[in-house]
Records
---
Amino acid sequence: MTQGSMQIAALPVRSGFGLPLLLLSAAGLLGLSVLLAGQAAPALAWPWLLGVVALLLVGAVGIRQSAQGESRTARILPAAATLILAVLAAEAILRAYAVPTGLIPAPSKVAQSLWAARTVLLQDAYYTFVLEALLGFVVGTLAGLGLALLAVRFRILERGVLPYAALLSSVPIVALAPVVIKAAGLGWPSKTIIVAITVLFPVVINAVRGLQSAQPMHLDLMHSYAASPAQIFREVRWPSALPFIFTALRVSSTLALINAIVAEFFGTEGHGLGFRIQIEVGRFGLDIVWAAIVVASVIGISFYLFISALERFVLRRN
Amino acid sequence: MTASRPTSDAPIVSVRDLQMIFPTPGGQTVALQDANLQIMPGEFISLIGPSGCGKTTLLRLMADLIQPTGGELLVNGGTPRKARENRAYGYVFQAPALMEWRNVLNNVKLPLDVMNTPKAERDSRAREMLKLVGLEKFERSYPWQLSGGMQQRVSIARALAFDPPLLFMDEPFGALDEITRENLNLELLRLWRETGKTVVFVTHSISEAVFLSTRVVVMTARPGKIEGIVDIGLPHPRSDDSREDPRFFEYATQIRELLKKGHS
Amino acid sequence: MTAAPANLPRPARRPSNLLPMLGVALAALLLYWPLMLWANSGQAARSLASGADLGCTTALACATQLRNPVIPAPGQFATGFTSLSVPPLAPTSAPYNALVTGGETLLGLALASVLGLVLATLLVRSRSFERATLPWLVASQTVPIVALAPMLAVLLGQYGVQGFLPKAIIAAYIAFFPIAIGMAQGLRSPDPLQLDLMRTYRASPAQVFGLLQVPASLPYLFTSLKVAATAALVGSIVAEISTISFSGLGKMLAENSRASDTVALWVIMIYGAALGIVLVALIGGLERLVTRWRPPA
């Protein structure tokens, strides 16, 4: 028996310890938090910290064990456990040291605030995501595709515009935001414009690159069929551009929401997640800030996953 | 030099009942079954066969890049692991596998850097090797500036840089065009004569195997095994004329027959 | 078999983009004048209707005279630009403040690169670590991390970290995720054959890391640095706005935004844009210097 085959045989046995260790660690951390909830801040914080560290070590061993092998659980469980244990450990430590909510709010407090402020936060999310990020994303994408088609059709435009697009894509939106907001007003459309501008550049650059990525051999083949320009576009250029365009869309999908939030830091009519974050930081309402960030994160990840799924769907059909 | 090269009695590579089984999702694959082969110092051995016959597997076993599931394998008088740790062989892969951030000279120097050869020796040794493969004018070029054939010559120089007694070559010219390949074949034979290395050479070209080798090991697939060994009696030094020798065709036919036998 | 080095392949020169670029710039300049008049005339008409004395009679004539125009007229641009740029190193001038912000961002990028390399090494070395953290690192790219900047600024202030450092830390914090992921990708990028090669040399893990993995990861590092630079710049500007700052473009933006001085905002925007472009160009220059072995693009 050689080393290699022995390792393969040993794997399933070792991973068996993972889940019990993880459960032990999670239950322990939860227990500490519950114990700490009954009383005011403990006189001595360090024994609690020691307990948390010990339980985290147990959890780390559990994560290590459960990460062995190639099963579905071995891929998903370690990541899920890391998040849960991190949140539980933060809760216990923040309670043990009685850190004021105005400085770092405990996860449980954030969850409470999230629920309490759900109406306001959902309304903020509607402004920031639907009206600003999503609309800006769609407008920017369409404008970018249009510009890219023009640039590919008229080579002179490509050589004149594309270098600027590459240059302008490294401009920080925070420099752009105040001017656009002064020009277009404090309402949501100004933020939509900012998002559209920031989405425009990556889409133009990637779409042009993609439209030109068609293989010369394929173009020659279409030529030999005496295909019309429209047919060449439909059969060769567009399909080969799609992967490039989707790469830009995936990147932009995350930028859209982030930029909408940042743009709101520079002036709103009192709506939006960015606005909420900014005023609540000002009055130390950090539980609401965190709650807003949780909402934004969930939306951001969902939007990204949606675009990725769309990409897979469209590219598989082509 | 003639066909009878000075050889000592002890084989430099000894393969006895060697077996290699890979686990696959649906069960297992027998990549190599009951292989037996003795290679004498100074020989030029080719392993030839269709894909899946285990020729690359056999080479990788000799190089300790994978470990066998059964049988016995001695390289340079010890286990393959020992041979690797003693840096007893140079390995040339299908692709040049050059480090694209090192120029030609520094690529040849790579093994000397790893092996902590005295610094003063590294440059002169690498230049010597580049001269051997005819690339001394390109020492400052970067890999992307060289043609495929030139890159593969750099990788041969690199394999020889630390002067190992053995040279393992895994289809080194497989990706090159016929003209470049024949040129490099001639050059490889010259290197072999000048350095006296033992070469184990994997190929799927019958003419290449006949032209280069002292013996050709013919392998067949499913399961991978050695079908037969053909002694090549063509005299050395060989040249393009050797390809016109009637015996060249006889050997080629003999190998083709063996390959067909495994196929039926 | 030997050819002169002169035969080395060199990529063909592409036609220069200079003329078309100048043409587009000219077109933009020609469009600017009517656009400016159109954008400002509404406000000018309103001011005139309210009876303000602007020293002009028609909306179109007043469009270049407004105190806080939507788009400044050329003369206003010139005045605003000089008043904010001369002398360049005065604490109130834009070039000085751009240098401060640029310095914070570069320090942040340097910090992020060190952290990124450490994290990337861990990710590549330990599969358990990778499985436990990589999904969250990737997810963090889709999360508005910059939204944490105001809060982080307040938090760091509470613990006495002040001045230059908190902005650099926030810039690093934002830049660090793309760098870590890029580096991890780079450390994994060597060809399996190259790894086998190192194995045939009996190379130690440290040699494989130093001679193969790190050099192979450099192009990936620079690609992610370019992505990270703009994000880090946004981070340091947001941090300047959210903390008590005495210098930096963020501070200037906040002040002029409050004062509604639109001409100044335009000038600062141009400085900010230039800073972003310069930072990315700096990284690009460094990249060409460090990875000279690569074929020119």
---
Amino acid sequence: MSDSPLLEVSNLRVSFPTRQGVTEAVRGVSFTVGREKLGIVGESGSGKSMTGRSVLRLVPAPGVVGADRLAFRGEDLLGASDKRLRAIRGRRIAMVMQDPKFSLNPVMTVGRQIAEAYRVHSDAGPAEARRRALEMLEAVRIRDPERVYGRYPHEVSGGMGQRIMIAMMLIPEPELLIADEPTSALDVTVQMQVLAILDDLCGRRGMGMIFISHDLNLVASFCDRILIMYAGRVVESCRASELRNATHPYTRGLLDSLPRLDDPRAELPVLTRDPAWLTEGGQ
Amino acid sequence: MTEQGMIGIENLRVAFGQGADSVVAVDGVSLSVRDGESFGLVGESGSGKSTVLRAVSGLNHDWSGRVAVAGVEQSRRRAKGFFKTCQMVFQDPYGSLHPRHPVDRILAEPIAIHGLGDTDGRIDRVLLEVGLGPSFRFRYPHQLSGGQRQRVAIARALVLEPRLLLLDEPTSALDVSVQAEILNLLRRLRAERGLTLVLVSHNLAVVANLCDRLAVMNRGRIVEEMTVEDLRRGEAAQPYTRQLLRASQGYDRAAAESFRDFA
């Protein structure tokens, strides 16, 4: 059981028809996710976010998603009815977005939003939902859950907002979490604390996670396995601990272009993009 | 040039709001930047680092204390000549360029305001200097990538030939490969023109790459000033700086546990 993957993706394609022709955002991506932290790294426009979104069929219109196989625990997601998909979204596969400012309802207290997330996916009453929401706020290390429960999103800091988002996404106890740049809007110390919470929850519940980020060092230190995406394809995949030994020139170029505290050279090597990367096999 | 160098700030204080709702963003900051130096201001969000920069640049009028730029005491309102000495580059190249002005007009405006003349020659030269070339003159911002836009923003600042360039997170909206290009460009321009740079950033590695010296800020105050060599060796005197250094070295479960708030 533990060996069979939670999510299987094979030859995923996402395209957008435009006036200038069809833009292919994702061009044949294949991977599986088990009970692990899978990192997807790439620059803007690499298709990493669209890959994450297409798992829940959240690609905005007029985008078209296609795949040879897109299955969660053996169940096909691509052909699933909207009703079936709603039962999976949030309940079994949850998603955390980058900026809590745009993901929380501004006119509803954060406590009610978390409780609502619980009630939608269970038949609990309001008192039970409130109790669970307070527990969840505590689990994401919010010091005074009672006080924060009654606050509106604009009354909390960015780090607290992101912890609230995570609480809301994790309260239905999903089996897979898709986190799209969940900590990029946060200060480094807060970022570490939020990651520690995600790390613990993954470990304790045996949850799988897809962690999408542009930050190579962060992904290398946080995830188990990494896919490196370029122009809609996976150009390289490796164990996170092996990223230093990556071989693809794009990955090497990205690593080299990062300024480092332990490397006093002034001039940074600039990435030269080889057109061949666009067409090579990918995976 | 007086002995106080390019920038002299003494006991700078900036507060937003009135009465009980007043928030002190900068609380008694003093620092000086030498002529030709590249100085970094580092801190987390809300530390006041950008507010210090905005007070120096004249974008914030409500400050008290003393600010001197290029040996001239500054009042709350800046004279036109001030902006010939001091220019600023902002974080978001998508928001800082007029969307309906072509590059040519974006660059011609400061030249016209300051009555410099030779508009065509200046624009062509500055576009070459930032690595874009004259073919970019008649493009609109939406026809440019993020890195190209930031080059236009840098060109707009440089077209007046300032001696002091204030940079507010100039690379944090860019991909790492583009960030490397912009950092290399800024380093080259500084060497060629003898510019003084003040770089505000939350990224210690970026500051180390471009600066000689830095100040670490927290809650409106300077926690410590140090050289980049000290930073590279991890020789920080203050626990706040050591925590910041540790947090910037990637995810570490044990380190995350040890973090605390500094008042």
